[in-house]
Amino acid sequence: MLFLFAVIMAALLLFLMVFFVIMFSDLECDYINPIDLCNKLNQFVLPEMGAHAFLFFMFLINGSWLAMILNLPLVVYNIQKVTANRHMYDATEIFRTLSQHKKECFFKLGFYLVMFFYFLYRMIVALIAADS
Amino acid sequence: MNGYGRPPFQQQQQQPFPGFRPGYQQPMHQQQQPGYRPSPTMMHQQPLPRPAFSPAQRPQQLPPQAFAPRPGMVPPGARPPAPQPINGTPFQQQPQQQRPPQSPMTNTMPPRPLAGPGQPPSPMRPPMGYQQAGPLPTPGMAPSPQGIQPSPQAAGLPPMQQPPQPSPMQQPQQQQQQQQQQNPVQPQPGLQQPGQQQPLVQQQTPIASANQATTPEQQQPDQQQQQGDQAHQQRRKRMYPKQVFMEDTNASGNFAAPVSAAATPAYPQMQQPQQLQQPQQPQQPQFMSPMGAAPTYPGSQQPAQQPAAHPQAIQSMTNQMGQMNLGGAPAQPMPSVSLMGAPPPVNELVNLCPPIRLPQNVSITNSPFANCDESYKCCTVNAIPNTEALLKKSRLPFALVLAPYRSLDDNEEPVPVVSDSVISRCRRCRTYINPFVTFVEGGQRWKCNMCFLLNDVPAAFDYDAHSQKQTDRWKRPELNYGTVEFVAPTEYMVRPPQAPAFVFVLDVSYSAVQSGMLATAARTLLDTLERIPNDENRTSIGIITVDSALHFYNFDDSLEDPQMLVVADVEDIDAVKVLLEKLPDMFRDTTNVNNALGPALQAAHKMLAPYGGKIICLQSTLPNIGTGALKSREDVKLLGTPKESTLLNPASPFYKSFAVDCSRSQIACDMLIFGGQYADVATLSCLPHYTGGQTYYYPGFNASRTEDALKFAHEFSELLSEQIGLEAVIRIRASRGLRMNAFHGNFFIRSTDLLALPNVPRDQNYCVEVVIEDDLKTPTVCFQTALLHTSCTGERRIRVVTLCLPVSNSIPELYANINPKAMISYLANKAVERALSSKLDDARDAVVNKLVDLLGVYKAHVLGSAQGSTPQLTIPENLKLLPLLALALIKHDGLRQSSQIPTDMRANAMNLLRTMPLQLLIPYLHANFYSLHNMPPEAGELTEQGLVFPPVLNLTAERIEAHGCYLLENGQHIYLWVGRGVVPQLCMDLFDAANYEALRGGKYTLPVLDTPLNRKVNLLIGKIREMRRGDYYPTLYLVKEDGDPYLKIWFLSHLIEDRTENVMSYQQFLQFIKDRVGSGSF
User: Fold this and answer.
1) Are A86 and A94 in contact (CB under 8 A)?
2) For residue B692, which residues of chain A lie inside 8 Å, CB to CB?
3) B963: nearest Cα among B122, B145, B131, B343
4) Domain spanning B927-1055: which CATH class is it, in words?
5) Could you tell me the CATH superfamily of domain B501-723?
6) Residue B1012: phi, psi to the nearest 5?
7) Which UniProt keywords apply (chain B) (predicted)?
8) What pLDDT score was predicted for residue B197?
9) For chain B, which residues make up each domain, given as ranges?
10) Which of B729, B752, B768 is the best substitution to test chain A (most A C-beta atoms within 10 A)?
11) What are B734-779's pLDDT values in tens digits?
12) What is the ipTM of this complex?
């Protein structure tokens, strides 16, 4: 059951990342101004990190060690960013750091995609195990 | 000449100051840091401009009177929501006793010994009288009136050959004009024999006509004489674009070939092949139409433009072109100079920049003003590398330095205005029509010089709606001037042009009242009310005073006294005056030490948000209540350590996010910060930084000192009366293949290439980094800055500044075209950015590394010498002062390695480095140093050329004689240094003091006396205070040789050629650079 939940969460995070990437390319094409962009994206930054941390926590108490270890680096990275107060997008700096942000988003996108399939696989394995 | 010279018996006193011993110490920056280079980033299609913020936000019209109570605002009688009464809450009691320091340096500096151990005893006062003979030449050190003697090394080299100045612009212009007048629309003018000059019938522009004072007949012999002289140069010049093109297609890399073994290193391959080719193909590459068309390039040439059908015409035309001398001098080899062992020739600091050498006829009208003036916009390199690879290889920083809205000098013509609102722009890239476009198809269409798209010429382009007549197209200002202003029609408005509106947020806390800031500010405001731009009686003013609570004022006519606590509605200026007169008394006995700046700003924002305008904050106390409260975070232990940059970054995110809100509602903020104690300039200057405002900092302000009050009053009143631009955006376009990559300055970047400025101050500098995305195939490229703004008179205007630069494919030519002033401005911007994002060490290293890079590439690719140590540091002539300026930059208050510069001072210095236009920046980095006691007789006298300044001295303590009196100024401060052995007569004449002991150091006002010396020095000081742009009013300090140690150290820190603290002297710096270059570690 845990992995069913994880699959849904991973899918949500995946969509969120796609949304981020779309917004960044909108900014580059001047379809949105940086103030709106930052206001919009900043709403989602903490929920995204929280969802991921929650998922991590679920693996931890469930004892799914491999899934936990896979997710550990991102959790650590997120915590680092929050403690250094770098997690929010700054409208005044966004154009200087845009390439960095985009790179990070693509990386996260890939990560969630891999995780999605991994969780799917684990879910199917768990279902088969439950059937038999 | 007044003889204040050294008495002869004082010879033994000739010693440099202790602590300034020359001699090489260990190098400071050992490890190699990668300099900053533009990195290739993603290709990016430039979108069409869109209205920046959605028009739906601003539906309502602006009523003429602002601040009338309306739904969005707090109703009269109500307190604004934000501030709560906080009087009862306990607050930190801050030590309020301000001790006005003697100097703007705070007292954190340990006292330093005034005189070193080896200092000889103070000499007796010379008994010589006033009328003694002139200064005796002392070996080696006496500042000679002629300035600096050339060193033997420098003298051994061939002297710099000044490129021949373009002969008076009249002749070519005249010819061109005639062609154009005969064929106003036809792009290919008829044949015209070179000799057949006709008198000028019509005059093109007022400026041009001023130049055409002499009659054409008078000019003819002169011109014919020049023909012979210049024929071969001109022919070579004509080959240039073709040459570039051929080089480009053949082998773009062959510039790396060993350049020459000869002594003159500069671009030989540019010349020699050309000269060789000359006889064989006398007119092959001359595909130039008089419209300035480029040579044929694949895809860029339109068939309609092909002039090959008339070979005869071209023959005679090109002959004619050959006699014109326009577009700058032909490329001359830039001689190189050696630097080591000689003092830098500081007197050449004023004109350093190489001229822009454009190919002939690149502008359609050949107007001498086709390219914008350097002060509006210039580039770090006056020749653009044609490929990204070449730019990388040359390691040149590629950036534009611009001050598009600079103020005009007294003797300058105003920027020409196109008032018929016929604005022709390229359909694709939105470039404004400019002198570098070409007309094709019989003048029906024009070809964009940026993207080469053909655009229709608007029907009204040749038509004057007023007189209902056809007009001469070639007289249109946008085809003649690099800097023009268009009056914009309604398409360029999101809403009706806003009226200027000012809200003053005045600090009335204890320190503001005690220092006299409030009284001075109120007085100045009162006096300046009439000068605030208010051409149509639309300007509105609001006043908020703030301590721990906010006070608003009702300026209702019916009330006799202004009533507090009511939102302002200013229609009647008299009420404001009454308030301003009463303001100091109202708060005279305040003991409130708190300041709620954040809520005050929010309230001001609320007042201004529907219209836009300007908030001017006068801040004397650190804001410590409500939103945006700050703590006194300065930690002396952090100064001079890598952690120092944390203090230079904003402490609270409020000021950044508030600035973004302001920028969105077209509100600018100016900050005037008065520091008795720590005032957190770094955080407060965020507001001006992102809203296009300015920060002024008055350390240790005390209005009871007239000098302080005068400086503040002058700057405040200049700031208020400045003709600012409102609700502005800046966009910079460039030829295809170039892209603006990064922006530095006071604005908010609203889109990848759009800068938003709620207000444009007059004299602010912006720096824009450029990257090359595609190979440049044209012989020239253009940069166009468009500044869309509302003038103070309520007119929407577009100021267009166009700069055209040649493209080059050879590193020697690039190096000969470096503009050292723009370069140093770019380096200063980058260094400040680096210091804030990383640490100050990195910033200094970045400057040094860039310099080493440049000189290393010059050595390897231009001089062609092998790696390894050479006895000399050789540098192109135009860069000979770049090492000095770079040294000045790393020794500047903003970047110097020191644990004694308070954070506020540093933050302010960084702000100034980032925003000062070149004219101010260069003296701010490298101060001007004059000797007063032995001025030549003509110095300080008013002549036809203006006031004559004494010769500039090198910035070294060696130049200081014990009996001397010196003046040093950097545009922000003026120092009068008085040596301890000064002749009493000089004290009498200059200061009205009996002798040296009677003088008192510190801030000083020079008395007006009836002596020649005093008159001259007063004239000089007055001239220094008014000769530059900007609002700054330098304060005069009197520095005694054995006076206040802080002040003395501060003065000596401007002498950048000396070794100060642990930073290298000039010669050590050169040695260090040379070693780095020699070791190949660049």
Assistant:
1) no
2) none
3) B122
4) alpha beta
5) von Willebrand factor, type A domain (3.40.50.410)
6) -60, -40
7) Cytoplasm, Endoplasmic reticulum, ER-Golgi transport, Golgi apparatus, Membrane, Protein transport, Transport
8) 40
9) 501-723, 927-1055
10) B752
11) 999 999 989 999 999 988 889 999 999 988 999 999 999 999 989 9
12) 0.87
